[in-house]
Amino acid sequence: MSDRDDRNRAATEARHYNPYPSEFLEREFEIYDLLREQLPIARSEVMSNTTLGEAKGGWVLTRYDDGSEVLRDPETFSNQTLAYPVRPWIPQAIDPPMHTSYRRILNPWFAPEAMTKLEPHLEQYANELADKMLEKDEFDFVADYADPFPTVIFCELAGFPADDYPRIMDWKNIIMHGGDGHRRGHDLTCAKARELGHDVDGDDGLTNEAALAARAAAAGEVYQYFQQLLDARRESPQDDLVSKLLTAKYEGERPLTQEEIEDTLFLLFMAGLDTVASALGLMIQDFAQNEVKRKEFIELMDSDDPSQLSQAIEELVRVHSIVLLPRRVTREASFHGAVFQPEDTVMVPTQASNRDPEAFPDPNTLIFDRMPNRHLGFGLGPHRCLGIHLARRELRIALQVFHRKCPNYRLDPNKTANAFGGMKGLASLPLVRT
Ligand code: HEM
Fold it and tell me: Mutation test of ligand 1: which of 156, 347, 385 has the most ligand atoms closer than 8 Å to its C-beta?
């Protein structure tokens, strides 16, 4: 095939770029490689920046250097992009300088020392879940382990009662997974839309309008839930994030408003529930099919040098990046030959940046001692992941505990995993112990 054909193919892929449905995942890396080689700053006509959002067009950036440049420049590339179900969430949808003030409040609560103190509890809970899951030889790694582990830990940190886990998961699945191939997210969204009086006929009958209404209703319920919790903590404070937010001071001067607290809790809820679970599912799916790398990883777990295991975790996050990072252009900007207009969306899929061979030689291979490894899996610039120290510990401990108890496993040949796109991950991963 000629260069011209490849370029035409790339232009077609870019025009139709939609990373949200699960079908996209079947060709995800092939598409990103083609774009990076042929059209690294590609114009897309139909791109939306949410699972259910309106398609407005924009740009897809597949090179590591270009993505990094965008993430480092919040003045030109604003974080206020999505259609928020209630209000823009804090701090992720707020630009500096206000963003900096919010991060100053939140950073100490997620600092490395605070997270290290949690480690014995993380170990104990991971062990408990793994023991229960491994009572059977066939199990669902995501439903039985990857989902509850970070979610319950996050609920404890936040101050959400443990008994609320099922409804918290249901809300999260409607808000985040109404239209991305997540089966339970889809079913719950259909049920909620019907409850609201929308005519949802069969599995394919969910319109965007009905899904958006269901999402807004679920978000409304989450906000109400926060309001009740805040009232309870005002009466009797505990050692949790809800109580900490009630006493926090913006710029050391004024208390946060009720709305600011709710919008912060909402973002923490979205970021804290899904991310580690998604990454864990993808990592184990890969290990289930790649015995050599799995064994290599298990050997590193017993290494005398703990930094080797930490490096391996970073490499797993690079290869199994889950986050798409959309930005809104604030002013006309020339960008390496392209001209961005105000209000354009620029999408940085970390899945593409992190497999750019210019930045990561042999990018599709897990190289556990890769150095340097400045991947974008946790973002870059002012919005770099607040939960990074928690996430790293959860990933390490969850993988260690599972592999100590179950070093040999494979994909269940009689069942299929349920993958979802966008902020991608797995809703289920059936495995068999071998
Ligand atoms: C494997 C797990 C995780 C991954 C891959 C991940 C990835 C990311 C990425 C890429 C960003 C940047 C967003 C942007 O630039 O717009 C981000 C931001 C954020 N993450 Fe994480 N995250 C993970 C776990 C967590 C956890 C466990 C929390 C916990 C509470 C968390 C809280 C946040 C928050 C609050 C932000 C917004 C920061 C800001 O805008 O300043 N993340 N994360």
Answer: 385
Query: What is the overall mean pLDDT for the chain?
Result: 95
Ligand 1, residues at Cβ distance < 6 Å:
79, 91-92, 103, 267-268, 271-272, 275-276, 279, 317, 322-323, 325, 377-379, 383, 385-387, 390-391
Residue 276 Cα to ligand 1 midpoint, Å, equals 10
pLDDT tens, position by position, 167-186: 999 999 999 999 899 999 99
DSSP for 72-122 reads: T-TTTEES--S--SSS--TTTT--TTHHHHHHHHHGGGG-HHHHHHTHHHH
Architecture of domain 3-433: Orthogonal Bundle (1.10)
The tally of CA atoms less than 13 A away on the side-chain side of residue 275 is 24
CA pair distance 426, 110, nearest whole angstrom: 26
- Euclidean distance between CA atoms 149 and 169, whole angstroms: 12
From 275, 282, 317, the mutation candidate for ligand 1 (largest count of ligand atoms within 8 A of CB) is 275
Q: Could you state, in order of their start, the residue ranges of all structural domains in the chain?
A: 3-433
Residues belonging to the chain:
434
User: Position of tokens 């497999």?
Assistant: 355
pTM of the model: 0.97
